[in-house]
């Protein structure tokens, strides 16, 4: 999705990681075909985030977020993009790319007994300045 929707930005990520790996051969990507430098698995029973921005991510970059678990996405687990005034149903298995460094975002709670986890990929801004 990243290379389809933002091919130049995606290539910049790939080139940056390749250059970094050339300078530090001990550097290993988390996944063979990823363009992102970092990943976080949130496996809590009911992963929920408060309104925030990821200030240390690449400022013009994107962050990939995937929703996981078993919950009624019509009643909870919505993705909120505060600056855009959007509340988005975000079913398990859905992914989205957002500029998380400057776009305030969070998600809503889910019902007791349901589970929601998430998987995110991102790159720190310092990597692009290095």
Automatic annotation (TrEMBL):
Taxonomic source organism: Dendrothele bispora (strain CBS 962.96)
Protein name in the entry: Prolyl 4-hydroxylase alpha subunit Fe(2+) 2OG dioxygenase domain-containing protein
Organismal lineage: Eukaryota, Fungi, Dikarya, Basidiomycota, Agaricomycotina
